[in-house]
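User: Show me a protein chain along with its predicted structure.
Assistant: Here is one chain, sequence first, then C-alpha coordinates.
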Amino acid sequence: MRRSKPPLTRFCHRRPAEVEAQGLNGRWYQTRIIPVFDEGRVVAATSLTLDIHAQKDLERSLQRQRDYLETLNNMTLDLLERLNIREVLHALVEKALHILQADQGAIFLLADDGEAMEQVEATPHLEPRQGQRLRRGEAVAGRVWVQGQMLTVEDYATWEGRHPDPIYDSMHYTVGVPIKIDDAVVGVLVMGIQAVGRQFDAEEITQLQDFARLTAVAIDNARLYAQVQDERAALERRVAARTAELHTLSEISQALSRAPDETAMMMALAQPAIEDGVDSVALYYIDVDAYGTPEWFTLTAIWRRAPDDAAMPIGARFYIPQFPAFDLLLQNPDQPLFLEDIARDPRLDDITRSLFLLFTTNALLGVALTQGGAWVGAIVFSWFYKPHYFSEREHAIYHALPALAAPAFANYRRHREQQRAQVDTLYALSQAISAAPSEEALLHRLAEPLHRFAVESMSFYTVEGDSQEAPQAIRLLSVWRAPGIKPRVSPGQRFDLAQFPSTHALTQPPYEPLLIEDLGNDRRLDANVHAVLKDLGLQRLAFVPLARRERQVWSGLLVLGWRQPAPFSEAEQTVYTAMPAMVSPVLENILLVR
Protein backbone atom coordinates (compact mmCIF):
# COMPACT_ATOMS: atom_id res chain seq x y z
CA MET A 1 0.00 0.00 0.00
CA ARG A 2 1.05 3.52 -0.62
CA ARG A 3 1.46 5.68 2.37
CA SER A 4 -0.95 8.56 2.50
CA LYS A 5 0.55 12.00 2.57
CA PRO A 6 -0.08 14.37 5.38
CA PRO A 7 -2.94 16.77 4.56
CA LEU A 8 -0.69 19.85 4.11
CA THR A 9 1.88 18.05 2.02
CA ARG A 10 -0.37 17.94 -0.97
CA PHE A 11 0.08 21.76 -1.29
CA CYS A 12 3.83 21.57 -1.64
CA HIS A 13 6.13 19.58 -3.78
CA ARG A 14 9.52 20.15 -2.19
CA ARG A 15 8.92 23.95 -2.39
CA PRO A 16 6.82 26.39 -0.32
CA ALA A 17 3.31 27.24 -1.62
CA GLU A 18 0.92 30.20 -1.14
CA VAL A 19 -2.88 30.05 -1.04
CA GLU A 20 -5.26 33.05 -0.95
CA ALA A 21 -8.86 32.60 0.08
CA GLN A 22 -11.81 34.65 1.38
CA GLY A 23 -13.08 33.72 4.78
CA LEU A 24 -16.67 33.41 5.92
CA ASN A 25 -16.44 36.93 7.36
CA GLY A 26 -15.70 38.30 3.90
CA ARG A 27 -12.07 39.16 4.61
CA TRP A 28 -9.15 37.94 2.55
CA TYR A 29 -6.34 35.72 3.97
CA GLN A 30 -3.08 34.34 2.66
CA THR A 31 -1.66 30.98 3.88
CA ARG A 32 2.00 30.09 3.28
CA ILE A 33 2.82 26.34 3.45
CA ILE A 34 6.48 25.33 4.03
CA PRO A 35 7.53 21.61 3.55
CA VAL A 36 9.59 19.70 6.22
CA PHE A 37 12.12 17.19 4.79
CA ASP A 38 13.56 13.95 6.23
CA GLU A 39 16.27 12.32 4.19
CA GLY A 40 15.12 14.20 1.14
CA ARG A 41 11.51 13.32 1.61
CA VAL A 42 8.67 15.65 2.60
CA VAL A 43 7.46 14.26 5.87
CA ALA A 44 5.53 17.24 7.20
CA ALA A 45 4.60 20.91 6.55
CA THR A 46 4.15 24.08 8.54
CA SER A 47 1.78 26.95 7.67
CA LEU A 48 1.56 30.71 8.30
CA THR A 49 -1.73 32.61 7.75
CA LEU A 50 -1.84 36.42 7.21
CA ASP A 51 -4.78 38.84 6.97
CA ILE A 52 -4.33 40.55 3.54
CA HIS A 53 -7.72 42.25 3.27
CA ALA A 54 -6.24 45.79 3.26
CA GLN A 55 -3.71 44.76 0.64
CA LYS A 56 -6.52 43.39 -1.52
CA ASP A 57 -8.45 46.65 -1.19
CA LEU A 58 -5.36 48.60 -2.23
CA GLU A 59 -4.78 46.33 -5.23
CA ARG A 60 -8.39 46.73 -6.32
CA SER A 61 -8.13 50.48 -5.92
CA LEU A 62 -4.92 50.63 -7.93
CA GLN A 63 -6.39 48.41 -10.64
CA ARG A 64 -9.48 50.56 -10.81
CA GLN A 65 -7.29 53.68 -11.03
CA ARG A 66 -5.24 52.10 -13.83
CA ASP A 67 -8.45 51.16 -15.67
CA TYR A 68 -9.81 54.68 -15.15
CA LEU A 69 -6.65 56.38 -16.41
CA GLU A 70 -6.48 54.04 -19.39
CA THR A 71 -10.15 54.70 -20.15
CA LEU A 72 -9.67 58.44 -19.74
CA ASN A 73 -6.68 58.38 -22.10
CA ASN A 74 -8.54 56.28 -24.66
CA MET A 75 -11.55 58.56 -24.44
CA THR A 76 -9.40 61.65 -24.91
CA LEU A 77 -7.88 60.13 -28.04
CA ASP A 78 -11.35 59.08 -29.11
CA LEU A 79 -12.54 62.66 -28.78
CA LEU A 80 -9.86 63.76 -31.22
CA GLU A 81 -11.11 61.26 -33.79
CA ARG A 82 -14.87 61.35 -33.24
CA LEU A 83 -16.70 64.51 -34.18
CA ASN A 84 -20.25 63.19 -34.08
CA ILE A 85 -21.63 64.39 -30.75
CA ARG A 86 -24.04 61.47 -30.28
CA GLU A 87 -21.30 58.89 -30.82
CA VAL A 88 -19.06 60.65 -28.31
CA LEU A 89 -21.79 60.88 -25.66
CA HIS A 90 -22.71 57.22 -26.10
CA ALA A 91 -19.09 56.21 -25.56
CA LEU A 92 -18.85 58.43 -22.46
CA VAL A 93 -21.91 56.87 -20.82
CA GLU A 94 -20.64 53.33 -21.45
CA LYS A 95 -17.16 54.09 -20.08
CA ALA A 96 -18.53 55.86 -17.01
CA LEU A 97 -20.78 52.90 -16.20
CA HIS A 98 -17.85 50.52 -16.53
CA ILE A 99 -15.42 52.51 -14.38
CA LEU A 100 -17.89 53.43 -11.66
CA GLN A 101 -19.70 50.09 -11.66
CA ALA A 102 -23.00 51.97 -11.88
CA ASP A 103 -26.28 50.48 -13.09
CA GLN A 104 -27.97 53.35 -14.89
CA GLY A 105 -26.78 56.58 -16.48
CA ALA A 106 -27.97 59.39 -18.75
CA ILE A 107 -26.76 62.64 -20.24
CA PHE A 108 -29.06 65.64 -20.50
CA LEU A 109 -28.21 68.64 -22.72
CA LEU A 110 -29.73 72.09 -22.78
CA ALA A 111 -32.42 72.19 -25.50
CA ASP A 112 -32.06 74.57 -28.46
CA ASP A 113 -34.85 76.77 -27.12
CA GLY A 114 -33.07 77.03 -23.74
CA GLU A 115 -36.26 76.11 -21.89
CA ALA A 116 -35.48 72.52 -20.80
CA MET A 117 -32.85 69.83 -20.28
CA GLU A 118 -33.32 67.11 -22.89
CA GLN A 119 -32.16 63.50 -22.49
CA VAL A 120 -29.86 62.77 -25.43
CA GLU A 121 -28.03 59.60 -24.35
CA ALA A 122 -28.72 56.87 -21.77
CA THR A 123 -28.20 53.25 -20.80
CA PRO A 124 -30.55 50.69 -22.42
CA HIS A 125 -33.00 50.74 -19.49
CA LEU A 126 -33.55 54.49 -19.90
CA GLU A 127 -33.41 54.66 -23.72
CA PRO A 128 -37.24 54.67 -24.03
CA ARG A 129 -37.12 58.15 -22.44
CA GLN A 130 -34.77 59.53 -25.11
CA GLY A 131 -35.79 63.10 -25.87
CA GLN A 132 -37.50 63.58 -22.50
CA ARG A 133 -37.52 67.23 -21.42
CA LEU A 134 -37.06 68.35 -17.81
CA ARG A 135 -37.93 71.87 -16.73
CA ARG A 136 -35.85 73.96 -14.36
CA GLY A 137 -35.83 72.38 -10.92
CA GLU A 138 -37.46 69.17 -12.14
CA ALA A 139 -35.85 65.87 -11.02
CA VAL A 140 -32.09 65.55 -10.55
CA ALA A 141 -31.09 67.09 -13.90
CA GLY A 142 -33.44 70.05 -13.46
CA ARG A 143 -32.12 70.85 -9.97
CA VAL A 144 -28.47 70.54 -10.98
CA TRP A 145 -29.23 72.90 -13.88
CA VAL A 146 -30.66 75.50 -11.49
CA GLN A 147 -28.07 75.09 -8.71
CA GLY A 148 -25.06 74.71 -10.99
CA GLN A 149 -23.43 72.15 -8.68
CA MET A 150 -23.37 68.41 -7.95
CA LEU A 151 -26.45 66.83 -6.33
CA THR A 152 -26.39 63.53 -4.38
CA VAL A 153 -29.62 61.62 -3.61
CA GLU A 154 -29.31 58.78 -1.08
CA ASP A 155 -32.48 56.99 -2.23
CA TYR A 156 -34.12 58.24 -5.41
CA ALA A 157 -37.14 55.93 -4.97
CA THR A 158 -38.19 57.82 -1.81
CA TRP A 159 -36.82 61.28 -2.71
CA GLU A 160 -39.39 64.08 -2.72
CA GLY A 161 -38.08 65.53 -5.98
CA ARG A 162 -38.11 62.29 -7.95
CA HIS A 163 -39.71 62.08 -11.38
CA PRO A 164 -43.08 60.26 -11.25
CA ASP A 165 -42.24 58.05 -14.23
CA PRO A 166 -42.18 54.40 -12.92
CA ILE A 167 -39.12 53.66 -15.03
CA TYR A 168 -37.09 55.24 -12.23
CA ASP A 169 -38.56 53.08 -9.42
CA SER A 170 -35.49 50.80 -9.32
CA MET A 171 -33.09 53.71 -8.79
CA HIS A 172 -31.66 54.32 -5.32
CA TYR A 173 -28.30 56.07 -4.89
CA THR A 174 -28.14 58.75 -7.61
CA VAL A 175 -25.66 61.52 -8.41
CA GLY A 176 -26.05 64.40 -10.89
CA VAL A 177 -23.00 66.43 -12.01
CA PRO A 178 -23.23 69.66 -14.04
CA ILE A 179 -21.60 69.82 -17.47
CA LYS A 180 -20.23 73.33 -17.85
CA ILE A 181 -18.71 75.33 -20.68
CA ASP A 182 -17.36 78.76 -19.71
CA ASP A 183 -19.11 78.47 -16.31
CA ALA A 184 -22.50 78.01 -17.97
CA VAL A 185 -24.43 74.76 -17.39
CA VAL A 186 -25.01 73.16 -20.80
CA GLY A 187 -25.93 69.70 -19.56
CA VAL A 188 -26.09 67.23 -16.68
CA LEU A 189 -24.46 63.79 -16.25
CA VAL A 190 -26.59 61.50 -14.05
CA MET A 191 -25.41 58.12 -12.67
CA GLY A 192 -27.44 55.76 -10.48
CA ILE A 193 -27.05 52.52 -8.46
CA GLN A 194 -29.86 50.01 -7.97
CA ALA A 195 -28.31 48.08 -5.05
CA VAL A 196 -29.52 49.37 -1.70
CA GLY A 197 -26.67 50.70 0.46
CA ARG A 198 -24.10 50.87 -2.35
CA GLN A 199 -22.68 54.38 -2.87
CA PHE A 200 -19.85 56.08 -4.69
CA ASP A 201 -16.79 56.79 -2.60
CA ALA A 202 -14.82 60.05 -2.78
CA GLU A 203 -12.54 58.72 -5.50
CA GLU A 204 -15.48 57.67 -7.65
CA ILE A 205 -17.16 61.04 -7.16
CA THR A 206 -13.96 62.69 -8.41
CA GLN A 207 -13.94 60.38 -11.39
CA LEU A 208 -17.58 61.19 -12.12
CA GLN A 209 -16.74 64.91 -12.08
CA ASP A 210 -13.85 64.20 -14.45
CA PHE A 211 -16.29 62.47 -16.78
CA ALA A 212 -18.52 65.55 -16.65
CA ARG A 213 -15.59 67.79 -17.57
CA LEU A 214 -14.61 65.43 -20.37
CA THR A 215 -18.19 65.49 -21.59
CA ALA A 216 -18.07 69.29 -21.67
CA VAL A 217 -14.90 69.17 -23.76
CA ALA A 218 -16.53 66.66 -26.10
CA ILE A 219 -19.64 68.79 -26.49
CA ASP A 220 -17.67 71.97 -27.06
CA ASN A 221 -15.38 70.24 -29.55
CA ALA A 222 -18.30 68.71 -31.44
CA ARG A 223 -20.19 71.99 -31.51
CA LEU A 224 -17.14 73.85 -32.78
CA TYR A 225 -16.70 71.22 -35.47
CA ALA A 226 -20.38 71.46 -36.39
CA GLN A 227 -20.07 75.24 -36.51
CA VAL A 228 -17.03 75.01 -38.78
CA GLN A 229 -18.86 72.53 -41.00
CA ASP A 230 -21.91 74.81 -41.14
CA GLU A 231 -19.74 77.81 -41.98
CA ARG A 232 -17.92 75.81 -44.62
CA ALA A 233 -21.20 74.63 -46.14
CA ALA A 234 -22.54 78.18 -46.03
CA LEU A 235 -19.36 79.46 -47.69
CA GLU A 236 -19.64 76.80 -50.39
CA ARG A 237 -23.25 77.79 -50.97
CA ARG A 238 -22.27 81.46 -51.20
CA VAL A 239 -19.44 80.66 -53.61
CA ALA A 240 -21.77 78.54 -55.74
CA ALA A 241 -24.41 81.27 -55.70
CA ARG A 242 -21.87 83.96 -56.55
CA THR A 243 -20.47 81.81 -59.35
CA ALA A 244 -23.98 81.38 -60.75
CA GLU A 245 -24.58 85.14 -60.45
CA LEU A 246 -21.33 85.93 -62.27
CA HIS A 247 -22.23 83.42 -64.98
CA THR A 248 -25.64 85.07 -65.40
CA LEU A 249 -24.08 88.55 -65.50
CA SER A 250 -21.50 87.34 -68.02
CA GLU A 251 -24.28 86.02 -70.27
CA ILE A 252 -26.12 89.34 -69.94
CA SER A 253 -22.96 91.27 -70.83
CA GLN A 254 -22.33 89.13 -73.91
CA ALA A 255 -25.94 89.47 -75.03
CA LEU A 256 -25.75 93.25 -74.56
CA SER A 257 -22.63 93.46 -76.73
CA ARG A 258 -24.45 91.64 -79.56
CA ALA A 259 -27.77 93.47 -79.25
CA PRO A 260 -28.61 95.54 -82.39
CA ASP A 261 -31.28 97.75 -80.80
CA GLU A 262 -32.99 98.76 -77.55
CA THR A 263 -35.47 95.88 -77.60
CA ALA A 264 -32.71 93.29 -77.89
CA MET A 265 -30.74 95.06 -75.15
CA MET A 266 -33.79 95.09 -72.87
CA MET A 267 -34.42 91.39 -73.48
CA ALA A 268 -30.80 90.59 -72.62
CA LEU A 269 -31.27 92.30 -69.25
CA ALA A 270 -34.71 90.79 -68.70
CA GLN A 271 -33.78 87.13 -69.24
CA PRO A 272 -33.21 86.29 -65.52
CA ALA A 273 -36.48 88.01 -64.58
CA ILE A 274 -38.36 86.17 -67.35
CA GLU A 275 -37.04 82.89 -65.93
CA ASP A 276 -38.29 84.02 -62.50
CA GLY A 277 -41.80 84.58 -63.84
CA VAL A 278 -41.92 88.34 -64.51
CA ASP A 279 -45.02 89.38 -66.47
CA SER A 280 -43.83 92.63 -68.06
CA VAL A 281 -40.55 94.44 -68.76
CA ALA A 282 -40.38 98.03 -70.01
CA LEU A 283 -37.46 100.26 -70.99
CA TYR A 284 -37.78 104.02 -70.60
CA TYR A 285 -35.44 106.81 -71.64
CA ILE A 286 -35.21 109.76 -69.23
CA ASP A 287 -35.19 113.33 -70.49
CA VAL A 288 -34.16 116.13 -68.14
CA ASP A 289 -35.11 119.78 -67.86
CA ALA A 290 -32.76 122.75 -68.18
CA TYR A 291 -31.43 122.11 -64.67
CA GLY A 292 -30.61 118.43 -65.28
CA THR A 293 -33.60 117.19 -63.25
CA PRO A 294 -35.48 114.17 -64.69
CA GLU A 295 -38.67 115.47 -66.32
CA TRP A 296 -40.00 112.90 -68.80
CA PHE A 297 -40.08 109.11 -69.11
CA THR A 298 -40.35 107.90 -72.73
CA LEU A 299 -41.30 104.28 -73.39
CA THR A 300 -38.66 102.86 -75.74
CA ALA A 301 -39.25 99.07 -75.61
CA ILE A 302 -41.69 96.72 -73.88
CA TRP A 303 -42.19 92.94 -73.41
CA ARG A 304 -45.24 91.16 -72.00
CA ARG A 305 -45.62 87.49 -71.18
CA ALA A 306 -49.22 87.55 -72.36
CA PRO A 307 -49.96 89.63 -75.49
CA ASP A 308 -52.12 92.62 -74.62
CA ASP A 309 -53.78 94.82 -77.23
CA ALA A 310 -54.11 97.56 -74.63
CA ALA A 311 -50.37 97.72 -73.99
CA MET A 312 -48.78 101.16 -74.01
CA PRO A 313 -47.47 102.27 -77.41
CA ILE A 314 -43.78 102.79 -78.01
CA GLY A 315 -43.00 106.47 -77.64
CA ALA A 316 -45.55 107.08 -74.88
CA ARG A 317 -44.32 109.86 -72.59
CA PHE A 318 -44.95 110.36 -68.87
CA TYR A 319 -44.42 113.61 -67.00
CA ILE A 320 -42.47 112.52 -63.92
CA PRO A 321 -43.96 114.99 -61.39
CA GLN A 322 -47.38 113.44 -62.04
CA PHE A 323 -46.19 109.93 -61.15
CA PRO A 324 -44.87 109.59 -57.55
CA ALA A 325 -43.67 106.03 -58.22
CA PHE A 326 -41.17 107.35 -60.77
CA ASP A 327 -39.99 109.94 -58.29
CA LEU A 328 -39.55 107.17 -55.69
CA LEU A 329 -37.31 105.29 -58.14
CA LEU A 330 -35.20 108.36 -58.91
CA GLN A 331 -34.62 109.40 -55.30
CA ASN A 332 -31.83 106.83 -54.91
CA PRO A 333 -30.52 105.99 -58.40
CA ASP A 334 -27.70 103.80 -57.08
CA GLN A 335 -30.16 101.32 -55.52
CA PRO A 336 -32.87 99.37 -57.36
CA LEU A 337 -36.42 99.95 -56.11
CA PHE A 338 -37.93 96.68 -54.82
CA LEU A 339 -41.71 96.74 -54.28
CA GLU A 340 -42.46 93.17 -53.28
CA ASP A 341 -46.08 93.67 -52.22
CA ILE A 342 -47.60 96.86 -53.58
CA ALA A 343 -50.80 96.44 -51.60
CA ARG A 344 -48.87 96.65 -48.31
CA ASP A 345 -45.78 98.72 -49.12
CA PRO A 346 -45.79 101.80 -46.85
CA ARG A 347 -43.65 103.83 -49.27
CA LEU A 348 -46.48 104.21 -51.78
CA ASP A 349 -49.20 106.80 -51.52
CA ASP A 350 -52.82 105.65 -51.87
CA ILE A 351 -53.26 107.07 -55.37
CA THR A 352 -50.16 105.35 -56.75
CA ARG A 353 -51.07 102.11 -55.00
CA SER A 354 -54.58 102.18 -56.44
CA LEU A 355 -53.25 102.92 -59.92
CA PHE A 356 -50.88 99.94 -59.78
CA LEU A 357 -53.55 97.59 -58.48
CA LEU A 358 -55.99 98.83 -61.12
CA PHE A 359 -53.61 97.39 -63.72
CA THR A 360 -53.15 94.22 -61.58
CA THR A 361 -49.52 95.12 -60.81
CA ASN A 362 -48.77 93.52 -57.43
CA ALA A 363 -44.95 93.66 -57.42
CA LEU A 364 -42.48 95.93 -59.18
CA LEU A 365 -38.74 96.36 -59.60
CA GLY A 366 -37.29 99.59 -60.94
CA VAL A 367 -33.65 99.95 -61.99
CA ALA A 368 -32.45 103.49 -62.74
CA LEU A 369 -29.65 103.89 -65.29
CA THR A 370 -27.10 106.70 -64.99
CA GLN A 371 -23.79 107.23 -66.75
CA GLY A 372 -21.19 109.65 -65.43
CA GLY A 373 -23.79 111.37 -63.26
CA ALA A 374 -26.15 111.88 -66.21
CA TRP A 375 -29.58 110.26 -66.43
CA VAL A 376 -29.96 107.67 -69.18
CA GLY A 377 -33.13 105.69 -68.51
CA ALA A 378 -34.84 103.08 -66.38
CA ILE A 379 -35.94 99.45 -66.64
CA VAL A 380 -39.19 98.49 -64.90
CA PHE A 381 -40.09 94.85 -64.16
CA SER A 382 -43.71 94.09 -63.19
CA TRP A 383 -45.35 91.03 -61.65
CA PHE A 384 -49.13 90.81 -62.05
CA TYR A 385 -51.79 89.12 -59.91
CA LYS A 386 -49.65 88.36 -56.82
CA PRO A 387 -46.69 89.71 -54.82
CA HIS A 388 -43.16 88.65 -55.68
CA TYR A 389 -40.55 88.25 -52.95
CA PHE A 390 -37.04 88.69 -54.29
CA SER A 391 -34.41 86.07 -53.48
CA GLU A 392 -30.84 86.82 -52.47
CA ARG A 393 -29.75 85.83 -55.98
CA GLU A 394 -32.20 88.28 -57.57
CA HIS A 395 -31.01 91.08 -55.29
CA ALA A 396 -27.40 90.45 -56.31
CA ILE A 397 -28.17 90.36 -60.04
CA TYR A 398 -30.44 93.43 -60.07
CA HIS A 399 -27.95 95.46 -58.03
CA ALA A 400 -25.33 94.66 -60.70
CA LEU A 401 -27.55 95.52 -63.68
CA PRO A 402 -26.96 99.31 -63.71
CA ALA A 403 -23.21 98.93 -64.14
CA LEU A 404 -23.81 96.61 -67.11
CA ALA A 405 -26.77 98.31 -68.72
CA ALA A 406 -26.13 102.05 -68.27
CA PRO A 407 -23.02 102.30 -70.52
CA ALA A 408 -24.64 100.15 -73.22
CA PHE A 409 -27.88 102.14 -73.29
CA ALA A 410 -26.05 105.47 -73.01
CA ASN A 411 -23.81 104.62 -75.96
CA TYR A 412 -26.72 103.35 -78.04
CA ARG A 413 -28.86 106.39 -77.22
CA ARG A 414 -25.96 108.72 -77.97
CA HIS A 415 -25.35 106.92 -81.26
CA ARG A 416 -29.01 107.08 -82.20
CA GLU A 417 -29.23 110.76 -81.32
CA GLN A 418 -26.10 111.43 -83.35
CA GLN A 419 -27.62 109.60 -86.30
CA ARG A 420 -30.81 111.60 -85.92
CA ALA A 421 -28.80 114.81 -85.67
CA GLN A 422 -26.85 113.87 -88.78
CA VAL A 423 -30.03 113.23 -90.72
CA ASP A 424 -31.56 116.47 -89.44
CA THR A 425 -28.42 118.43 -90.31
CA LEU A 426 -28.15 116.97 -93.80
CA TYR A 427 -31.84 117.59 -94.42
CA ALA A 428 -31.50 121.16 -93.18
CA LEU A 429 -28.47 121.66 -95.42
CA SER A 430 -30.32 120.29 -98.40
CA GLN A 431 -33.32 122.55 -97.79
CA ALA A 432 -31.17 125.59 -97.08
CA ILE A 433 -28.94 125.48 -100.13
CA SER A 434 -31.40 124.21 -102.72
CA ALA A 435 -32.44 127.71 -103.87
CA ALA A 436 -29.33 129.73 -103.03
CA PRO A 437 -28.93 132.47 -105.69
CA SER A 438 -25.24 133.19 -105.08
CA GLU A 439 -22.07 131.96 -103.45
CA GLU A 440 -22.55 134.44 -100.58
CA ALA A 441 -26.13 133.26 -100.03
CA LEU A 442 -24.97 129.64 -100.20
CA LEU A 443 -22.40 130.24 -97.44
CA HIS A 444 -24.87 132.04 -95.20
CA ARG A 445 -27.45 129.27 -95.68
CA LEU A 446 -24.83 126.63 -94.84
CA ALA A 447 -23.87 128.51 -91.68
CA GLU A 448 -27.27 128.05 -90.02
CA PRO A 449 -27.41 124.18 -90.13
CA LEU A 450 -23.70 124.00 -89.29
CA HIS A 451 -24.24 126.24 -86.28
CA ARG A 452 -24.59 123.10 -84.12
CA PHE A 453 -20.93 122.35 -84.96
CA ALA A 454 -19.90 125.89 -83.90
CA VAL A 455 -18.24 126.65 -87.25
CA GLU A 456 -16.40 129.99 -87.07
CA SER A 457 -15.20 130.38 -90.66
CA MET A 458 -16.32 129.18 -94.11
CA SER A 459 -14.64 129.84 -97.47
CA PHE A 460 -15.58 128.83 -101.04
CA TYR A 461 -12.78 128.32 -103.55
CA THR A 462 -13.34 127.49 -107.18
CA VAL A 463 -10.99 125.98 -109.74
CA GLU A 464 -9.37 128.48 -112.04
CA GLY A 465 -9.26 127.28 -115.58
CA ASP A 466 -10.58 124.05 -117.11
CA SER A 467 -11.67 121.74 -114.29
CA GLN A 468 -11.39 118.76 -116.59
CA GLU A 469 -7.61 119.14 -116.53
CA ALA A 470 -5.29 119.09 -113.55
CA PRO A 471 -6.16 122.28 -111.60
CA GLN A 472 -3.42 124.89 -111.48
CA ALA A 473 -4.91 127.37 -109.02
CA ILE A 474 -7.96 128.11 -106.91
CA ARG A 475 -9.67 131.45 -106.35
CA LEU A 476 -11.67 132.55 -103.30
CA LEU A 477 -15.29 133.05 -104.39
CA SER A 478 -16.91 133.89 -101.06
CA VAL A 479 -16.07 133.96 -97.38
CA TRP A 480 -18.12 133.95 -94.16
CA ARG A 481 -16.82 134.66 -90.68
CA ALA A 482 -18.52 134.43 -87.31
CA PRO A 483 -19.01 137.75 -85.51
CA GLY A 484 -15.78 138.95 -83.94
CA ILE A 485 -13.46 137.38 -86.52
CA LYS A 486 -11.75 139.79 -88.93
CA PRO A 487 -11.27 138.43 -92.47
CA ARG A 488 -7.65 138.36 -93.62
CA VAL A 489 -8.41 137.28 -97.20
CA SER A 490 -10.95 138.71 -99.61
CA PRO A 491 -12.97 137.28 -102.50
CA GLY A 492 -11.03 137.07 -105.74
CA GLN A 493 -7.72 136.25 -104.07
CA ARG A 494 -5.84 133.58 -106.05
CA PHE A 495 -3.71 130.70 -104.71
CA ASP A 496 -1.31 128.80 -106.94
CA LEU A 497 -1.61 125.12 -106.05
CA ALA A 498 2.01 124.50 -107.02
CA GLN A 499 2.98 126.45 -103.91
CA PHE A 500 0.79 124.22 -101.77
CA PRO A 501 1.71 120.62 -102.71
CA SER A 502 -0.12 119.07 -99.75
CA THR A 503 -3.48 120.12 -101.28
CA HIS A 504 -2.91 117.94 -104.34
CA ALA A 505 -4.71 114.98 -102.70
CA LEU A 506 -7.87 117.09 -102.40
CA THR A 507 -8.03 117.53 -106.17
CA GLN A 508 -8.06 113.78 -106.89
CA PRO A 509 -10.66 111.06 -106.43
CA PRO A 510 -12.15 109.83 -104.18
CA TYR A 511 -12.55 113.44 -102.96
CA GLU A 512 -12.60 112.66 -99.24
CA PRO A 513 -12.62 115.48 -96.64
CA LEU A 514 -9.32 116.30 -94.92
CA LEU A 515 -9.92 116.89 -91.21
CA ILE A 516 -7.26 118.71 -89.18
CA GLU A 517 -8.03 118.50 -85.45
CA ASP A 518 -4.93 120.37 -84.25
CA LEU A 519 -2.94 122.32 -86.86
CA GLY A 520 0.07 122.71 -84.58
CA ASN A 521 0.53 118.93 -84.28
CA ASP A 522 -0.55 117.87 -87.78
CA ARG A 523 2.22 117.05 -90.29
CA ARG A 524 0.07 116.34 -93.35
CA LEU A 525 0.08 119.97 -94.56
CA ASP A 526 3.12 121.69 -96.01
CA ALA A 527 4.78 124.78 -94.53
CA ASN A 528 3.08 127.26 -96.89
CA VAL A 529 -0.39 125.99 -95.93
CA HIS A 530 0.59 126.19 -92.25
CA ALA A 531 1.73 129.80 -92.74
CA VAL A 532 -1.51 130.88 -94.42
CA LEU A 533 -3.75 129.16 -91.86
CA LYS A 534 -1.70 130.47 -88.95
CA ASP A 535 -2.12 133.96 -90.32
CA LEU A 536 -5.87 133.37 -90.41
CA GLY A 537 -5.76 132.33 -86.74
CA LEU A 538 -7.32 128.86 -87.38
CA GLN A 539 -6.22 125.72 -85.52
CA ARG A 540 -8.95 123.24 -86.50
CA LEU A 541 -10.02 122.82 -90.12
CA ALA A 542 -12.15 120.74 -92.43
CA PHE A 543 -11.19 120.76 -96.12
CA VAL A 544 -14.23 119.57 -98.09
CA PRO A 545 -13.48 119.01 -101.80
CA LEU A 546 -16.41 119.95 -104.08
CA ALA A 547 -16.76 117.45 -106.89
CA ARG A 548 -19.39 115.53 -108.79
CA ARG A 549 -18.22 111.99 -108.08
CA GLU A 550 -20.23 110.47 -110.86
CA ARG A 551 -18.46 112.82 -113.32
CA GLN A 552 -15.09 112.57 -111.57
CA VAL A 553 -14.73 116.37 -111.87
CA TRP A 554 -13.12 118.49 -109.15
CA SER A 555 -14.81 121.88 -109.12
CA GLY A 556 -13.75 123.61 -105.94
CA LEU A 557 -13.05 123.56 -102.21
CA LEU A 558 -15.04 124.41 -99.07
CA VAL A 559 -12.87 125.19 -96.04
CA LEU A 560 -14.42 125.24 -92.53
CA GLY A 561 -12.37 126.62 -89.67
CA TRP A 562 -12.25 126.92 -85.88
CA ARG A 563 -9.87 128.85 -83.68
CA GLN A 564 -9.48 126.09 -81.05
CA PRO A 565 -8.26 122.50 -81.68
CA ALA A 566 -10.71 119.69 -80.90
CA PRO A 567 -11.55 116.17 -82.13
CA PHE A 568 -14.20 115.76 -84.83
CA SER A 569 -17.33 113.93 -83.73
CA GLU A 570 -18.85 111.06 -85.63
CA ALA A 571 -21.73 113.32 -86.66
CA GLU A 572 -19.33 115.93 -88.09
CA GLN A 573 -17.42 113.34 -90.05
CA THR A 574 -20.66 111.99 -91.53
CA VAL A 575 -21.95 115.46 -92.50
CA TYR A 576 -18.66 116.64 -94.01
CA THR A 577 -18.38 113.42 -96.03
CA ALA A 578 -21.90 113.91 -97.43
CA MET A 579 -21.52 117.63 -98.20
CA PRO A 580 -19.63 117.32 -101.54
CA ALA A 581 -22.53 115.50 -103.18
CA MET A 582 -24.99 118.10 -101.82
CA VAL A 583 -23.11 121.36 -102.29
CA SER A 584 -21.25 120.68 -105.56
CA PRO A 585 -24.34 120.66 -107.85
CA VAL A 586 -25.71 123.83 -106.26
CA LEU A 587 -22.38 125.64 -106.61
CA GLU A 588 -22.02 124.50 -110.22
CA ASN A 589 -25.50 125.79 -111.04
CA ILE A 590 -24.69 129.15 -109.42
CA LEU A 591 -21.48 129.45 -111.44
CA LEU A 592 -23.23 128.30 -114.62
CA VAL A 593 -26.02 130.86 -114.26
CA ARG A 594 -23.56 133.62 -113.52
